[in-house]
Design brief:
It is a single chain. This protein has 6 helices and no strands. It is mainly alpha-helical. The chain has one domain: Helicase, Ruva Protein, domain 3, CATH 1.10.8. Helix 2 packs antiparallel against helix 5 and helix 5 crosses helix 6. The N and C termini lie far apart (66 Å).
Length: 125
């Protein structure tokens, strides 16, 4: 049995991992910047779930908005029993629609006190 180590075509595994991590980090920074300046709405990101936001915590995305800190984010997510550390990619379709409906009502100036089961009717109508 000849056990000779082979080098992968893209270089060592740790270098490929670092390259991927840097790519994701830069893409997330760009996404957060676009959300902060208002070019992109958080509800769109939650509904579409681009690759750079797939493993991102929902609190990180919410706090990238202007005037959204940890307290506002925590109070907002308390309306729907959801952890701040929940990743956007692991959210169910119903959770996505509910958060998007609540976020669009917040941007229109309405309070987000609607219960989650009532906001489903907002997204289907």
């Amino acid at each position: 049995m000849n056990a000779t180590p082979t080098v992968a075509p893209g270089g060592p595994q740790y270098m490929r991992a670092l390259e991927r991590a840097n790519k994701v980090r830069l893409a997330r920074a760009d996404l957060k910047r676009r959300v902060a300046i208002g070019e992109l709405h958080v509800a769109e990101v939650i509904l579409e779930c681009p690759w750079e936001a797939h493993s991102m915590a929902v609190a990180d995305l919410l706090m990238s908005q202007r005037r959204w800190g940890q307290t506002r984010c925590r109070k907002f997510l308390a309306q729907v029993p959801m952890s701040e550390k929940k990743t956007i990619g692991s959210m169910t379709e119903r959770q996505r629609r509910t958060l998007a409906a609540m976020l669009t009502s917040v941007s229109r100036g309405r309070a987000w006190t609607a219960t989650p089961w009532l906001t489903d009717s907002l997204t289907t109508a």
